[in-house]
Amino acid sequence: MIAPTAIARMIADETARFTSANPRSAALARDAARHWHRGVPFHWMLDWGTPFPLFAARAEGSRLWDVDGHVYDDFCLGDTGSMFGHSPAPVARAIAQQGAHGLTFMLPTEDAVAVGDLLAERFGLPFWQTTSTASEANRAVIRWCRGITGRDKTLVFNGCYHGAVDDAFVDLRHGVPELRRSLVGQVYDMREHTRVIEFNDLAALEAALAPGDVACVLTEPALTNVGMVLPDPGYLEALRDLTHRHGTLLVFDETHTISTGPGGWTGTHGPLPDLFVLGKPVAGGVPCAVYGFSAEVAERMERARAANESGHSGIGTTLSANALALAAMRAALAEVMTPAAYAHMLPLADRLAETLRAAIVAHNLDWHVTHVGARGEFICTGTPPRNGTEARAAMQGDLERALHLYLINRGVLIAPFHNMTLVCPATTEDQVARLGNILGECLSSLME
Ligand code: PMP
């Protein structure tokens, strides 16, 4: 048991340490505040728990340097955008080459042909479209699913996150659907068109699909945005069968679970969904996302499109599939997200999980470490959560903040918001061992 007083002391000590060690970041933070709202060009940059934002100077592979000259072992990797390392050489080369030859034309380039083939071969779905972000891909997918089924409901799981997709911002609190409190400025009651149930609950799923009005189920194969919740054995297969039986389309958002293997969770464990979304790392960090779908879905999409007047569909934006994004995606898929890269990442992620478990056990803590391939998570509770409610109950905001600050001050970045670690092709055994040692020192200090 870690005492709240110890946590408060660590936050105070580490805040002071961060402040004195980062004068250049502090100065830039003051200057940036002249014109950036709250001092940052994007407000998530304030979410690291530091007293002012850490300004990055550069990054390469598994390392990041800040403007004060500290070097970090980066296990956050841009919260997945750089899951295959910072500036992988093939992507950097492709960007430089395309950068000299035009960035966006609203016309396809030759890369489009290669990328289409790569996506279909790797993920097993025949047809694809591109957007600029995973949020946008999920929004497009929901629209298409409603459009082709003529149904108005989307089903999501409690604790899910699919990006800036308002339809998915519905939580269950004590079993009752509630709008997510952080959903600023939304005037529609998303509960009218979104049904929310707990993950791993087949009876609830059956009941939610039974009325026959659900266009699609949108989910990650394992929930990775509320700590980490794995599917029970057989759950996803049952989900596949039930959606099929009820005429509901199944969408897997593999933006994070691409950590499982070259073909994502689907390629490693199955089952194949009707639609598949992948964003963030798919172009090595250049804004880009894709969604794939079955031939049957493609045919229904075409019928829905043809039945409507031509013109703007509300799906897609001007920079979608621009030449730069396609060049970067081609390099990332063909040369970076390779089976050889995963052959390094997956065993090292196993090692990382063992290392963290050892540090936790050495301090007699009843915490749980889990991982989906290269993506790990430690949860400050003994029982692995089976759904969003259990996962939320396990979160310990102040303790996690103290841990994160302690790690940052000793040159280790893990994802803010939760305790997520990513292993990339450039991550080394030494970096993994160091993270384990520093976590151990942090726990010792908290338990003194
Ligand atoms: N899907 C999942 C599973 C995500 O975790 C996120 C972002 N964390 C997104 C989609 C949205 O990605 P983006 O913010 O790049 O649009």
How does this structure look, described?
This protein has 14 helices and 16 strands. The radius of gyration is 22 Å and the shape is globular. It starts with a helix and ends with a helix. Strand 9 (214-219), helix 7 (235-245) and strand 10 form a beta-alpha-beta unit. It has 448 residues and is of the alpha/beta class. It has two domains: 4-84 and 339-447, Aspartate Aminotransferase, domain 1, CATH 3.90.1150.10; 89-336, Type I PLP-dependent aspartate aminotransferase-like (Major domain) (Aspartate Aminotransferase, domain 2), CATH 3.40.640.10. 4'-deoxy-4'-aminopyridoxal-5'-phosphate (PMP) binds at residues 133-135, 138, 161-163, 220, 225, 253, 255-256, 279-280. 4'-deoxy-4'-aminopyridoxal-5'-phosphate binds next to helix 5. It holds the Pfam family Aminotran_3.
Briefly summarize what is shown.
The protein is α/β, with parallel strands linked by helices. The chain has helices at residues 4-21, 23-32, 89-99, 110-123, 134-149, 202-209, 235-245, 264-269, 295-307, 323-336, 339-362, 388-394, 397-409, 429-447, and strands at 56-60, 63-66, 71-74, 127-131, 153-157, 170-173, 176-179, 194-197, 214-219, 249-253, 275-278, 289-293, 368-372, 375-379, 412-413, 420-422. The protein folds into 2 domains: 4-84 and 339-447, Alpha-Beta Complex (Aspartate Aminotransferase, domain 1); 89-336, Aspartate Aminotransferase, domain 2.
Order of strands across the biggest sheet? Answer: 4-12-11-10-9-5-8
In terms of DSSP E residues, the strand content is 15-25%
The arrangement of helices and strands along the chain is: HHEEEHHEHEEEEHEHEHEEHHHEEHHEEH
Terminal CA distance reads 11 Å
Mean pLDDT: 97
Shape: globular
In CATH, the topology of the largest domain is named: Aspartate Aminotransferase, domain 2
